[in-house]
Automatic annotation (TrEMBL):
Belongs to the sodium:galactoside symporter (TC 2.A.2) family. The chain crosses the membrane at residues 12-39, 45-65, 86-103, 109-129, 149-169, 181-202, 261-280, 286-304, 316-333, 339-358, 395-415, 421-443. PANTHER family: MAJOR FACILITATOR SUPERFAMILY (MFS) PROFILE DOMAIN-CONTAINING PROTEIN, MAJOR FACILITATOR SUPERFAMILY DOMAIN-CONTAINING PROTEIN. This is MFS transporter. Keywords: Membrane, Transmembrane, Transmembrane helix. InterPro entries: MFS_2, MFS_trans_sf. GO terms for biological process: carbohydrate transport. It comes from Halioxenophilus aromaticivorans. CDD domains: MFS_MelB_like (cd17332). SUPFAM superfamilies: MFS general substrate transporter (SSF103473). Gene3D superfamilies: MFS general substrate transporter like domains.
Length: 517
């Protein structure tokens, strides 16, 4: 039983970790490819390969970190410092590795090592951190407030990640240089250390006696790298057999990959295609994140009123309109125009903000759809799959931009680019995001979770819990089958999904609640 009371400082401290979570990723996605190719002498393919290698290593490291944190409570270290928060404490002195990424004039191996090392430090903080809301309280509303604190902080951090380079340029003399990014890296490193310390100091974990279950004990005995990778593969394959989750991933990736490609190409577009500067690109990214913050506030009541899928399609429309406005700016405006650029990005930002929020809203229902199929609650499995897929696709998107620019004639380190390279930059900024957005739009037409269908879903879950064996209505049966992708006769564990890491609780439910239909 968790008895400690959450106070405002605990909500604030918990949310501050997304200064690292969202802030660092906003800096990396918006600036690192440009920094590598402009100030470090790397080709776009070399720079993109760094992301790919880091993601391959992270695909092993991330599930391993989560698995270790589950069993660390049985060790002397875990008993002294906690099985989750010990990762935060020991990662604090390693966070200045973020600044080392932004030292210019080094060799390829230096940038590979520094990037991979920070990614591992980042994972060592983020993965244990994502368990803390469930560790600190069992109350649904309090967990929702903790999540809200995190999202709000992350959006604000992303704003600063966008505008900080412009501030630094103005302070150090108004000239774009490698020192701008090193100073930014140092500022963020110090901030990360302070924020993670606040999280460690003002959060807590469940009492040790509440942290273990029979299934957890089995997991601890199988605490091996091979066991972790096997579990990861099983969770990946089993979660993807839930239709609503597959559609959710389509919408999620449509919104996020489009932003990855856009962010990676945007600075090149501003500097080389329309005659701006790094400072201008920084200001515009900050403006975009401000628009996204407003869009999140608007999207919340819109989703409640219209449902996630229709709201998603509206957001896609805004984002595509903003992208085509940028294309029009390149084609028809002869000189650089700050205000027209800002208007196009505000329009795009309204779509981007909603696309950031809506998938995380729909994610909250995935475990409910899974429960009616398996009879289990597997939030952790779905969170793990989302993190794995997100990191893999983000790396692929950034690498895609690097390869395309290289093939299009982009010259690393040059102050001016050929017309072919500029055309490639513009095409990447426009075509890549639009194609992915249209795919997400198409997927959303098949996604039917809303307030009404979710109410039916929860009612059917309750029927199974109570052991009711009467026939469901035809409408309810159709809704549940559409969401899950399984026949009604296969619900509540009457399928092979329950063979993935079966627990004592699950086996008991399967024996008691098999439906007669």
């Amino acid at each position: 039983m968790i008895k400690r009371e959450l106070r405002p400082i605990n909500y604030l401290a918990y949310g501050l970790n997304d200064v690292l979570g969202a802030g660092s990723m906003a800096v990396i996605s918006g600036w690192i490819l440009f920094f590598y190719t402009t100030f470090c002498g790397l080709s776009t393919v070399q720079a993109a390969s760094i992301f790919a290698i880091a993601r391959i290593l992270d695909a092993v490291a991330s599930p391993l970190i989560g698995h270790i944190s589950d069993g660390l409570g049985n060790t002397a270290l875990g008993k002294r410092f906690g099985r989750r928060r010990v990762f935060l404490l020991f990662s604090i002195p390693l966070l200045p590795s973020f600044a080392l990424m932004w030292v210019s004039g080094q060799e390829y191996l230096y940038y590979l090592i520094t990037y991979v090392f920070f990614e591992l430090v980042y994972a060592s903080v983020i993965i244990p951190y994502e368990t803390l809301a469930a560790e600190m309280t069992d109350d649904f509303k309090k967990r929702a407030k903790l999540a809200g604190a995190r999202i709000l902080t992350g959006q604000i951090a992303a704003i600063f990640a966008g505008i900080l380079p412009a501030w630094i340029v103005s302070v150090v003399g108004g000239k774009d240089s490698a020192s701008t990014f090193l100073i930014m890296g140092i500022i963020f490193s110090v901030t990360f250390m302070a924020m993670v310390f606040m999280v460690w100091f003002f959060t807590w974990e469940r009492p040790a006696e509440d942290a273990h279950t029979p299934s957890q004990t089995v997991s601890n005995r199988q605490w091996t790298l091979l066991g972790t990778l096997t579990t990861l593969f099983k969770n990946l394959s089993s979660t993807l057999k839930i239709r609503a989750f597959r559609l959710h991933l389509g919408m999620y990736l449509g919104g996020y990959i489009s932003q990855d490609v856009f962010n990676a190409a945007f600075t090149y577009f501003v500097v080389f295609a329309i005659g701006g500067s790094v400072a201008v690109a920084s200001q515009m990214m900050g403006l975009t994140y401000c628009a996204q913050l407003v869009a999140v506030a608007v999207a919340i009541p819109l989703v409640i009123r219209l449902g996630p899928a229709p709201s998603y399609r509206i957001a896609v429309g805004f984002y595509i309109a903003g992208i085509f406005a940028l294309l029009g700016l390149f084609w028809w405006v002869a000189e650089f125009n700050f205000y027209l650029l800002a208007g196009a990005l505000v329009l795009a930002g309204f779509g981007r903000g909603a696309l950031n929020y809506i998938p995380w809203n729909t994610y909250n229902y995935m475990a409910d759809v899974d429960q009616i199929v398996t009879g289990k609650r597997r939030e952790g499995s779905f969170a793990g799959v989302m993190t794995f897929v997100r990191k893999a696709t983000q790396a692929a998107a950034v690498m895609f931009v690097g390869i395309v620019l290289e093939a299009g004639g982009f010259a690393s380190g040059a102050s001016e680019q050929s017309q072919q390279a500029i055309t490639t930059i513009v095409a990447t900024l426009v075509i890549g995001p639009v194609i992915v957005l249209l795919l997400g739009y198409w997927v959303s037409t098949k996604f039917r979770i809303n307030n009404e269908t979710h109410t039916v879903l929860m009612a059917e879950i309750e029927r199974f819990k109570q052991g009711v064996i009467s026939q469901p209505s035809d409408e309810n049966k159709q809704i549940v089958e559409d969401l899950s992708g399984w026949r009604y006769e296969q619900m509540w564990g009457n399928n092979d999904l329950c063979e993935v890491e079966p627990s004592i609780e699950t086996n008991r439910n399967r024996n008691e609640y098999k439906p007669t239909v």
